[in-house]
Amino acid sequence: MSQKDLSSLRVNKERLMKDIHDTCEWGKGERYGEHETETGMSRLSLSDTDKQARDWFHETTTALGCKVHVDAMGNQFAVRPGLNNDAPPTYAGSHLDTQPTGGRYDGILGVTAAVEMLRVLNDNWVETAYPIGVVNWTNEEGARFPMSMVASGVWSGDIPVEKAHNLKSVIPSNDTATMKSELERIGYLGSTPCSWESTPMAAHFELHIEQGPILEAEERRIGVVQGVQSYKWFTVTVKGRDSHTGATSFAHRADALLTTSKMIIASHKIAAKHGALASTGILNLKPGSTNTVPGWVQFSLDIRSPQDETVEKVEKECKAAFSALAAGDDFMNISSDCPPSTRHCTVEWRTDFISPATHFHADCISCVQSAGQDLCGSGQVKGKDIGSWGKLMTSGAGHDSVYASKRCPTTMVFVPCRDGVSHNPAEYSAPEACADGADVLLGAVVRYDKLRGQR
Amino acid sequence: MSQKDLSSLRVNKERLMKDIHDTCEWGKGERYGEHETETGMSRLSLSDTDKQARDWFHETTTALGCKVHVDAMGNQFAVRPGLNNDAPPTYAGSHLDTQPTGGRYDGILGVTAAVEMLRVLNDNWVETAYPIGVVNWTNEEGARFPMSMVASGVWSGDIPVEKAHNLKSVIPSNDTATMKSELERIGYLGSTPCSWESTPMAAHFELHIEQGPILEAEERRIGVVQGVQSYKWFTVTVKGRDSHTGATSFAHRADALLTTSKMIIASHKIAAKHGALASTGILNLKPGSTNTVPGWVQFSLDIRSPQDETVEKVEKECKAAFSALAAGDDFMNISSDCPPSTRHCTVEWRTDFISPATHFHADCISCVQSAGQDLCGSGQVKGKDIGSWGKLMTSGAGHDSVYASKRCPTTMVFVPCRDGVSHNPAEYSAPEACADGADVLLGAVVRYDKLRGQR
Ligand SMILES: NC(=O)NCCC(=O)O
Ligand SMILES: NC(=O)NCCC(=O)O
Questions:
Q1: How many H helices and E strands in chain B?
Q2: Residue B338 has what DSSP assignment?
Q3: What is the Cα–Cα distance from B379 to B66, expressed in whole angstroms?
Q4: In a 3-state reduction of DSSP, which class is residue A292?
Q5: Which residues of B, range 403-432, sit inside 8 Å of A by Cβ?
Q6: B208 neighbors B110 (Cβ within 8 angstroms)
Q7: Which of A44, A81, A238, B161 has an alpha carbon within 20 to 30 A of B292's alpha carbon?
């Protein structure tokens, strides 16, 4: 097949959608509509249904002629040989685990599109210069084992394997399993060490739904991802004093939940001021009784911005604001008409996760852009816009590509999702959008392989 | 013993404190200090430890010469005969169950002081005109079976016994027991129907710790309780949309937790404006993941005021405010610097419990006042103050006396507790305060018996 022909390779949309929906039988979640595919997903990492999806990945890629291996974090690597197999493969991939109430596209699209890429290469008897790999990263979501992108983080050398193996399941809440015990239980504790040295990659391409509303709102088909914004996760603990709701005047309360409410609002104000994001997704309190003012609240705080410095600024200002609010100083006027209390709360912070701003590789980005141009018609870059079809963008969410990019040239391809909704059963990307993304993924990988061949 | 002597009867402080601390071995809670009695209590209603406390009540009062019976709600009634046993007894009592993280005095003081009253009457060979009873009401806290004062509510005819029997345990959260199944399991499903007709009371006196800071702050020994404030409990559900914290701008969020935070602050502002109380003690959210904006929050709202009309007003204003806040109308300026969102939440209210304002009986109140005067030195009522020792007050918290008062003359005696703290392991009333209260309880019951004899 000539190089010209290679750039005209296209995926089979129906086959891709069939892979998505067939594999989504394992771990089907909440129904949100009438159609048989209108359910979300609940396929927690290393659960029985995740094992079924993994087995499918193994069998399918093996049948497509790949050599498949599994590493000590359960990451699955399927490699289709090229003409020269002494150099590392160019990889495409993502993850097959989901949020507890997630959808059918987050992660899943990236893996199934990479498998579809293998099918297209086989159907067209394509011989690549170097091997082409497909990867399924373990526990990207961090929903069950509370550290997102943990398995690519071990691969890149950023997270010690022991730390990852010892992570305890947080869903269901009475589960005592660890990552290691679950990897063993479902037969995916691989013998290959989990590292970029044992499983080197020449490059890493990841197709993903945008998980935000920009592409849809601007009617763009493809997001060319230049990097990932910086983010930091914290656990904040507010301690006040349990007291009786009926017998304790406002002035005598140290209400940890009222104080937390002010903190949540303050974090939004501060983030908004800096054009950043602040979010609280988890909140627990004690003792949890209608007639007891809670003396203890713990909540998560997720701060994001494209700039590391902005995340630091928001963190710093939130720390100052939370301390003031805990001490009864409502300097932001959030609750100006509440009578002040003579009793105060204390606040403690714990940093759980830091993901500095990531900048992807120019070579990978230009392969994606060229594949997009070929699919959608050419277009110049003007500011962030690429013709009318594409957009240069920064990912709001972290992805395994963050860690991959530390050890090899990397980028991502985004496609629009309905209403920007993700981490939600109703998450949806149209078949056309899925196929667009898969076409660009395929085109970018093939282009990168050619680039390597030319060097 | 002459009537003059009767008014000089005093309890044995050491014996009373021994009863409190001995019985608190059953269901001992969190330690908060070094001393062996410096632990809280966790004696949930109808648990194994509640059974131990009940067995103690039965054995102790039987040994003191009482006839004891148990009704269909597990309420225990111990009756010491008087000269005329054809009329109902004058009762003193309270409850032996505690909050999950409660203290050693809430309820327990009222029952142990009533038992101490029996001991004093026996020690002094006192013959009362009518029988004297001691009652231990079941599940006053409503902590395990989520309806406070439920067993006195069945007794008064306000709550159907089937409804009470079918209440499901909420602690521990995976418990499937009902009140009836637990009453049966621990052997306290009595054969007497639970009603004021089957177990009539001539009057009901209840000693309790104040659970608030007023008596301590004003250095008063005794609170003479004129009534109980009005309160209403609600469950509020806020629905927004789950979305990704990193990829969803503030403008695209329908953040149920941010909206709830505003509602909690709004409820405080509104209550403060009316001199009322509003409190949130329970808050649950879904899905509960650091990187997902919560699309669902449910929280409790407890509104209180001495006036029924004020509770209604606060409820009405909160309903209007919550609807506005859910619809994105921040008319209270709580989060003025947050960029507005184009997506909104919905809010639903459920009323869980209504306890209208309660006014206690003048005869009972004057017996308490007279007993207080005798103990503490005389004093005139000036406004709310009774000399320097006492205070006329309205109870902030509901008590079984609320329901008792619907079927018989009733009042309560309050004693100060440290820092106003209750529903907390560190809840504490000094032995002197406990003895003061028990002395006044004894004095009031003896006076009420005398009053009945004279009529
Ligand atoms: N895509 C995704 O949900 N990644 C998890 C890490 C994050 O919250 O950004
Ligand atoms: N005393 C007490 O805690 N009673 C329960 C009902 C209430 O919350 O007022």
A1: 13, 20
A2: S
A3: 36
A4: strand
A5: 420-424
A6: yes
A7: A238
Asked whether the beta carbons of residue A334 and residue B335 sit closer than 8 angstroms, the reply is yes
Task: Catalogue all structural domains in chain B, each as residue range(s) with its CATH number.
Answer: 3-229+357-454 (3.40.630.10), 230-355 (3.30.70.360)
Q: How many CB atoms lie within 10 A of CB A100?
A: 23
Chain A contact set for B281 (CB, 8 A) = 245, 257, 287-294
Q: Which of residues 255-314 of B touch A (CB under 8 A)?
A: 255, 257-258, 260-262, 264-265, 268-269, 271-273, 277, 279-283, 285-295, 300, 302, 304
List the structure tokens of A316: 């710093």
- Long-range contacts for A155-159 (Cβ within 8 Å, ≥24 apart)? A155/A71, A155/A73, A155/A75, A155/A194, A155/A195, A155/A196, A155/A199, A155/A403, A155/A404, A155/A407, A156/A196, A156/A403, A156/A404, A156/A406, A156/A407, A157/A195, A157/A196, A157/A406, A157/A407, A158/A403, A158/A406
Mean pLDDT by 10 residues, chain B (455 residues): 75 98 97 95 97 98 98 98 97 96 96 98 97 98 92 98 95 85 98 98 98 95 98 97 92 95 96 97 93 95 98 98 94 73 93 95 98 92 94 97 98 96 93 98 98 91
Q: Chain B within 8 Å of A328 (Cβ-Cβ)?
A: no
SS3 A158: coil
Inter-chain touch A242–B269, beta carbons under 8 Å: no
β-pairing, A90-95 with A203-209?
parallel
Q: Are B317 and A326 in contact (CB under 8 A)?
A: no
Q: Looking at residue B279, what is its pLDDT?
A: 98
* Alpha-carbon radius of gyration of chain A: 24
SS3 A132: strand
Instruction: Tell me the CA–centroid distance for residue A207 and ligand 1, in Å.
Output: 14
Please list every residue in chain B whose beta carbon sits closer than 8 Å to the beta carbon of residue A279. 245, 255, 291, 293
Q: Which residues of chain A have pLDDT under 70?
A: 1-4, 173, 336-337
Among the partner residues B272, B300, B424, nearest to A338 by beta-carbon distance: B272
CA distance A66 to A6: 20
Q: Tokens 């026996």 identify what position?
A: B122
CA pair distance A25, A325, nearest whole angstrom:
48
Q: Does any ligand 2 atom lie closer than 6 A to the CB of residue A290?
A: no
Residue ranges of alpha helices (H) inside A277-413 are 308-326, 362-376, 400-404
Contact A402, A304 (CB under 8 A): no
Of A265, A255, A264, residue with least CA distance to A286: A255
The residue among B154, B233, B171 whose CA lies nearest residue B45 is: B171
Residue B40: per-residue pLDDT: 97
| C-alpha count within 13 angstroms, C-beta hemisphere, residue A179 | 26
Per DSSP, helices labelled H in A156-283 are 161-165, 179-185, 214-217, 256-273
Distance A2 CA to ligand 1 centre (A): 39
Closest ligand 2 atom to Cα of A247? 9
From the CA of A245, give the closest atom in ligand 2. 8
Lookup: tokens for B267: 């409820």
DSSP state of B420: G
Does the CA dihedral B273-B274-B276-B277 come out positive or negative?
negative
Residue with tokens 């003792």: A287
Residue A1, pLDDT score: 58
Residue located via tokens 């980005």:
A365
Pairing of strands B132-137, B385-386: unpaired
Tally of CA atoms within 13 A in the half-sphere of A57 that contains its CB:
35
Asked whether the beta carbons of residue B288 and residue A281 sit closer than 8 angstroms, the reply is yes
| A398 pocket-lining for ligand 1 (C-beta < 6 Å) | yes
**A143 inside 8 A of chain B by CB:** yes
